[in-house]
Amino acid sequence: MSNAWKTRVDPLVPEESRWHSSHHGPVTTPDAIGDVVATLREADDEFIASVVAFCGRQVAQQLADYERGSRLLAKLADTGRVVTVLLQAARTAAEVAPAGDEQQEKEEEDTEDETQHVSRLTRWRRTLAEERARRMEEVYEPLLRDDAQLTQEMGDETQQLQILTLMRHDVEIYGAVLTERETDVIAELYTQMVRRSGLVVGVIPRWFATTTSLWTDSVKTEVEMGEGEFLSQVSIWKTLRHPNVLRFYGACHVGRAFVIHEAHTGTAIPTEGLLWNDLLGLAAGIGYVHGRGFAYQTLSMDTFVLLSSEQKLVVSGMGL
């Protein structure tokens, strides 16, 4: 095994993770599709392993929230996005990963001129499809028949609204990659939850997002405020586009509300040592906000943040 995976991926995951280089072969995980994709870690050719490790690092980051979760319904509500990530990873890895057992490759070739990466991709897709079918059969179809477990998994009213919103959003955005079996199970569980809870999910905002994986320089920040105030704040921030205003990417208003925005250091800004360029930039950001007809409820040093990607001060988009 190459050191590339140990360097790029291992620091991101706990040792028990299926992505850790200490494991060999597929690691079977409960309600976790993509165990076959995790075997990317076993590439040993230095160049190939370096490329594959970069791919594996991205996948591990994109699936981090999913794998940390423990609620079955929340995981089900993330199925489409997770499958999309895994299929993209399989497609990329199939072009560079070692071919594996030559006899198995030969048996799976449909024509003499079929390339190795196509047959490898076919095998990976087949295995992933088997994992997805087994996941429905062993985890979610039994949940449909177990009233007590379903009641427990639904949680309280806030959690129920969160799950219903996530389910609907996932189907709307990623429905094309779901199998008929997955779609049927999600639809039936959604129907049962609506009937039991009496909750109705309204129109999901276009800015709704559940993960930072769609943006390379993003972080998630939880926000403690009422839903009405939160929606009002987001409706303002999403309209602001200026190089000296922290970029807004998305937000989630159900469950524990959070915003996804441009990454910043999160450290306090020192009052000493600020350059004129810093002050001019902050003034430009504040001037832009005021020019749009908004004003900060409280203007303080907490309003200013230092971007992680570059040494530049910008103003926050919250608190308007």
TrEMBL record:
InterPro entries: Kinase-like_dom_sf
Residue ranges with Acidic residues bias: 102-113
Gene3D superfamilies assigned: Phosphorylase Kinase, domain 1
Annotated segments matching region Disordered: 94-118
Name recorded for this polypeptide: Protein kinase domain-containing protein
Source organism of the structure: Phytophthora fragariae
The organism's taxonomic lineage, starting at the top: Eukaryota, Sar, Stramenopiles, Oomycota, Peronosporomycetes
